[in-house]
Amino acid sequence: QVQLVESGGGLVQPGGSLRLSCTASGFDFSSYWMYWVRQSAGKGLEWVSSINSGGSGTFYTDSVKGRFTISRDNAKNALYLTMESLRSEDTALYYCARLAGAGSWGQGTQVTVSS
Question: What is the pLDDT of residue 42?
């Protein structure tokens, strides 16, 4: 059974930093591209970042380039998103996802950027 569990969200002031983590189980994590997707209140899903199976290729939506860093540790079946210089518009529920096949999503972790 595929399971993705996110953690690390919270309340942070503008300009602050957070590191999100996602622990995967139930599949061969090292064989899949992985994604971070977010949803703001009243808005649709927004792709944030993705990383290839080996971790050598990373991709970002324009609004987070230079501020967010996606990474993975295949030995630990873990995916990370390091977020710096956070803005109020980064406030959202952040999901870890495997989109291949039927797709699998975590339950999400809330990030709130507010003073």
Answer: 84
Calculated CA dihedral for residues 69, 109, 36, 55, nearest 10 degrees: 50
The pLDDT score that the predictor gives to residue 54 is 96
Identify the pLDDT of residue 103. Answer: 87
82 HSE (CA, 13 A, CB side): 6
> In sequence order, which residues have a C-beta less than 8 Å from that of residue 50 and are 6 or more positions away?
33, 34, 35, 36, 58, 59, 70
Bridge-based pairing of strands 18-25 and 78-83 is antiparallel
- Given this model, what pLDDT does residue 72 score? 98
The backbone torsions φ and ψ at residue 95, rounded to the nearest 5 degrees and listed phi first, read -115, 140
